[in-house]
Amino acid sequence: MGLNNPSQEAVDSGQTPQLVDRFGRRVTYVRLSVTDRCDFRCIYCMSEEMTFLPRARVLTLEELAMIGRAFSELGVDKIRITGGEPLVRSNVMQLFRELGRLPKLRELVLTTNGSQLAKMAADLKAAGVKRINISLDSLDPRRFRQITRVGDLDGVLRGIEAARRAGIERIKLNAVILKNRNHDEVVDLARFAIANGLDISYIEEMPLGVIGDHDRAEAYYSSDQIRADLSQHFTLLATTESTGGPSRYYRIPGIGSRIGFISPHSHNFCADCNRVRVTVEGRLLLCLGQEHSVDLRHVLRAYPGDHERLKQTLLQAMDIKPKGHEFDLQTRPIILRHMNTTGG
Ligand code: SAM
Ligand code: SF4
Questions:
Q1: What is the pLDDT of residues 15-47, one digit of tens each?
Q2: What does pTM read for this prediction?
Q3: Which terminus of the chain has a lower count of CB atoms within 10 Å, N or C?
Q4: CA 262 – CA 245 distance, rounded (Å)
């Protein structure tokens, strides 16, 4: 490959190699999907009838731990466990404990729908989980059921409470806002976050997978609209804070909660992208909105125990990380995988 890759140069000169792409962006953050299964069927994420992957195609917990270790040895200091619903995978605590012991990992974090947190929050905290993102799109039980198709709001609220009591350092709510479904709850969700000492991020729907339920262009509710709704009730001050993810944060004077916006359509966040994803099948995705990927499961299974080969594969993958995504709500989704297989 003709392009200069600083990560490769580091290998040649004997320093600890780092993951740096062709555009000079350093990858320090990995989102690891541990299952495509879920106990909810959110309308923006899944269709009602889903076929899930057979077990043989899904990475084992040991394989997931090996990938986590390889990344951390290459300078990744933050791993987010996601899915599907990560907490429905059996024995998943074993993986949290293994990753929690990696000496160079600064942050082990989790994205969950909250349904299992009431029983697992204390164990997660003990394993070293510092921050948890919990999806919450509505505070109305009937609406919550409609959006998740099967979810129980009360169970999620108990999960949030359990995470707070367990002493998780930062809890952030993630709310996907859809026009005419929950856009009128933007302010109530912020009030709930503030009252409970939580952060909140509002997410624009992304066109991942054919979902059949609603027209995504019609349901589009932009971050600018959400911010305008909030500004009628709160003073929002833009900050330069970052938690290493794609949220842009605002603060309300005198309030501890941060208000974030994840806006793949209205504000392109590719230029400072520091992350990659690993799907539950072991596909290393270099960009959420593009298909560029590397098959890590093949490397793990064709060369069992060959840790150096796994690390070399990760280093070489940096050469195909694309510059950015190309989402467009007006056309059919170019990305046919659903969010639950991608790892949100
Ligand atoms: N099951 C967990 C949860 O719901 O938090 C983790 C996986 S979920 C795929 C991760 C995040 O992606 C959630 O906050 C969810 O709301 C969001 N999400 C799912 N599908 C989306 C879509 N099409 N556009 C934007 N966000 C989406
Ligand atoms: Fe499940 Fe999360 Fe997708 Fe909802 S967003 S269906 S909770 S994976």
A1: 789 999 999 999 999 999 999 999 999 999 999
A2: 0.90
A3: N
A4: 9
